[in-house]
Amino acid sequence: MKRSANRILTTHVGSLIRPQPLQEFLRAKQAGKSYDHKAYATCLTGSVAEVVRQQADIGIDVVSDGEFGKSISWSQYALERLSGFERRPIKHDAANPFKRGADRTQFAEFYAELDAREGVATTTEAICVGPIKYTGQAELQRDIDNFKAALKSVKVEEAFLPVAAPASVIPDRKNEYYKSEDDIMAAIAEAMRAEYKMIIDAGLVVQLDDARNAVTYDRMVPPASFEDYRGWLAAQVDLINHAIEGLPADRIRYHVCWGSWPGPHVSDVPLKDIVDLILKVKVGAYVIEGANPRHEHEWKVWQEAKLGAGQVLIPGVISHATNVVEHPELVAERIVRLARIVGRENVIAGTDCGFAQGPFHRRVHPSIMWAKLAALAEGARLASQELWLS
Prior knowledge:
Layout: E1 9-10, H1 20-31, H2 37-58, E2 62-63, E3 85-89, H3 102-106, H4 108-118, E4 124-128, H5 137-151, E5 158-164, E6 174-175, H6 181-201, E7 205-209, H7 211-220, H8 226-243, E8 252-256, H9 275-278, E9 285-288, E10 312-318, H10 328-342, E11 348-351, H11 366-389
Parallel strand pairs: 1-11, 2-5, 4-6, 5-7, 7-8, 8-9, 9-10, 10-11
Antiparallel strand pairs: 3-4
Helix pairs in contact: 2-5, 5-6, 6-8, 7-8, 10-11
């Protein structure tokens, strides 16, 4: 994994806003309608090439494919790559697991307006009805091939593919096959290992996206206790480490955020209360939300929490969830204060989360997304001047 040896490198969380022509194919695919498969493949290949070029042109050093190959959300996509699941409509609004949590309870009127305006991304539930095995090799190979072809035409430092960590694979699923939650989680981790390994074997960095580990606090406490949540999280960390055992840690990034939705987030678990467990995940880099007003103050956590030898911190220094474009000088300040603590070579500037949580759910307009990434690149340039030349 590249480090900021001579300047602050830049990256992001992975998911970028899909272009309209690609969305049209994905709408047909999701709806089960007929579409021109050859035209879709051509559109996907071209879209990946273009988004990789745009990232490179704007100054992003460690790029992704935008997650353009996923036709569902960042976590639900695994339904198309794992056996053993079937989807059923959620019949009653109150039964939708994506519409619960402490934040939603406290701000019920706000969330009612938000849901009426944006809708709820998930309207079906996933049921495990048979053994879970990884079946997505062909689709993943297509994504790898498209990405590597696009990389041949640009000059960047490194490339990564974001995929779901075990706890975030098909969250809120129901189990009608395995004897226990532990059994189904073990099966998911074992199956997803095939995906992680395949990406690394292709010469790319793999990023494990894991909003679920932090978000579960909002869903669990109350009625459960904080100690209950800590015990659950510790078990998830063990599961991740099992899934990546034997894979090179320096080719793996681990992304933690508190959910991408544009809500108050007053019930988010503080980073200081879980950072010790996060740091037990045996990876080369930690990609952690840190630019939004609910979590920006948590840069101070790194005054006490310590990275392991050779590990990198990729803090969010721009937000995905506001249309305000951060000033490059503010971005530089955020980078410098962390670099002074953990070492400039151990920081890569990133984003809080993905700009699109699925093919059709975006947080900002595409023009604003690119303006934010430009501000990220310029902020890193300013920070580099201060950290290396002053």
